[in-house]
Amino acid sequence: MATRTALRRALPSIRSAVTHPEQQLRFTRSFSTTIPSLAPTPSSSSTSAAPEYAIPDPSRPTHFGYETVTESEKRERVAGVFTSVAESYDRMNDLMSFGWHRVWKDHFVASLNPGFSPLTSGPDPRGPQHILDIAGGTGDIAFRMLHTAHNLNANPSVRVTISDINRAMLTVGKQRSTLLPASQQAALSFVEANAENLSQTRPLHPYPSPVEPTSHDSHGNQEQAFFDPATATASIPSSSVDLYTVAFGIRNFSNIPAALREAHRVLKPGGVFACLEFSKADRFPVFNALYKEWSFRAIPLIGQLVAADRDSYQYLVESIERFPSQAAFRDMIVDAGFVVAGQGYEDLTGGVAAIHKGMKPRV
Ligand SMILES: C[S@@+](CC[C@H](N)C(=O)[O-])C[C@H]1O[C@@H](n2cnc3c(N)ncnc32)[C@H](O)[C@@H]1O
């Protein structure tokens, strides 16, 4: 209670600090060091023209774990991974992380305090809030958001959209959501979309069984388990979202700068981008060596034994290894036009995971 009161007192000054144009420039300058492979043009932190690397290109090389593939091939192979793991995903998360993913997710959501957010809503901190949970999968973050907003902060005017490229994962999430209180179910919606282009989305079209690789539509045509832009019917409007969250999803994207720019587009000025992702624990060499040993030896084996799918879990481990360091990812967030406070991220469990946050400037 005392912490919340202190925070409430401090927030106006924090808000004015990050919304004052000169301060924003200083925030941006002090953290925007160039990532060599993504060398931004001088205008890359402006929101007007997307630098070339932030425009999805199906034929551009990227990586899928340790392999080099094209952006479109990565998208299809990542879709294959998550279609394959959808039904075992929640159980496997507990086994692979000894339940730590729950602690990280609880902390992530508590740090954003949905439903009471002077930084993301209007004059009334308990006003309406639209949260977009990207790569929301089976709903872990969205459900926690609704619980905190509706139950702990007594704010029923918070609604959450769960968006994911993979219909099989969303279908499991939709099924799980039937256990939520009716008021929370009413505040939840599911959309299929590629995070790199949120102007093409469609409401969830339930997928019969995530374990089936394909299904058929009402005309008997074969359907893919993942989002097909040709069937998109809607766009997430620019400046419509108060809080954008992405947990353990962004390292799977084919073009991360494109997704960051989309996050920037859909957020309202003053809105917050928040990402929970695996990161680097290399500040603690002994711990890091043990962690790597566990990741590379045990996780694919558990995947094989529990989910009969070694390859998908091998990919998940390699994708963690390939993801940029905390500082490099923070710089990508700044290059997409966000301002960050302090060092821009918080390490969890020695850096095994990290939370990055950025704010879309108000002007
Ligand atoms: C490891 S799961 C994380 C799910 C959930 N956020 C959680 O924390 O439990 C990663 C999710 O990212 C989704 N994903 C991968 N690439 C995507 C993309 N380009 N756009 C949207 N979602 C994507 C996958 O379909 C999968 O559901």
Key structural traits:
single chain, 363 residues, alpha/beta, Rossmann fold, eight-stranded mixed beta sheet, two-stranded antiparallel ribbon, 12 helices, 12 strands, 42% helix, disordered N terminus, binds S-adenosylmethionine, SAM-dependent_MTases_sf, EC 2.1.1.201, 2-methoxy-6-polyprenyl-1,4-benzoquinol methylase, mitochondrial, UbiE/COQ5_MeTrFase_CS
3D architecture notes:
With 363 residues, this protein is α/β, with parallel strands linked by helices. The protein has one domain: Vaccinia Virus protein VP39 (Rossmann fold). The protein contains 12 helices and 12 strands. It has helices at 2-19, 21-31, 71-85, 89-97, 100-112, 140-152, 167-177, 182-186, 256-266, 285-307, 310-322, 326-335; strands at residues 61-64, 67-70, 129-134, 158-164, 188-194, 197-203, 214-216, 222-224, 241-247, 267-278, 345-348, 353-359. The strands form 3 sheets. Strands 6-5-4-3-9-10-12-11 form an 8-stranded mixed β-sheet, with helices on both faces. A two-stranded antiparallel ribbon has the order 1-2. A hairpin with a 5-residue loop joins strand 7 and strand 8 (222-224). Helix 3 packs across helix 11 and helix 10 packs antiparallel against helix 11 (310-322). The chain is globular and about 50 Å long. The two termini are 33 Å apart. 44% of the residues are buried. The model is unreliable at 1-47 (pLDDT under 50). The structure holds S-adenosylmethionine (SAM).
